[in-house]
Amino acid sequence: TTPPGDEAARRRALCAVVDRVALRARARELVLVDGRSGAGKSSLADDLRDLLDATGRAVALVRMDDVYPGWTGLAAAASEVSTRLVRPFLSTGVGCHGTWDWQQSTPGSPRTTPPGADLLLLEGCGSSSHVRDLDPVVVWLEAPEATRLQRAIDRDGPEYARWARVWSAQEVDTVARRQLVPLDVASHPRTGTASP
Description:
Helices cover 42% and strands 21% of the residues. By secondary structure, the protein is α/β, with parallel strands linked by helices. The strands form 3 sheets. It has a 6-stranded mixed beta sheet, with helices on both faces. Helix 4 crosses helix 5. The chain is globular and about 45 Å long.
């Protein structure tokens, strides 16, 4: 782990992912940013997308928040992205996924990966649950519970507070089944680093 504000350590962690992708040199690549709510996955994924784009990869960024079918849908979304998005993308270059309208609590319009994408960057809790057999590059983020909770409430407001226990129980179940990952990142406010 690194002290809060250590941007150099966070940058090293991001570069480690970019270097791993470059060394693998796969025609189609899968990078997963996983971890519990409020761990810092979204901002890390944004930075990864920018860095990977700069290397010439055509990145399709998909956020699990757009896929979860409501507050009880973590497991369902993890299964869906495996069968409808990740596996088809790696075999054909095209994948799709459902979406969820959080305001209306109803399914939204399905989405397809953009034409020409050669790297799928999937961000969100459960993203690595059903695709480990595909040898993806996995980044696991962690942060102290109090930090995660505050970030989630700041982001989602009182709605998250109402559903926090339900969502947390699903995360705990997902984390309990997690296998060891190639690269772990310990997340702090504005910080991340590769950990041994």
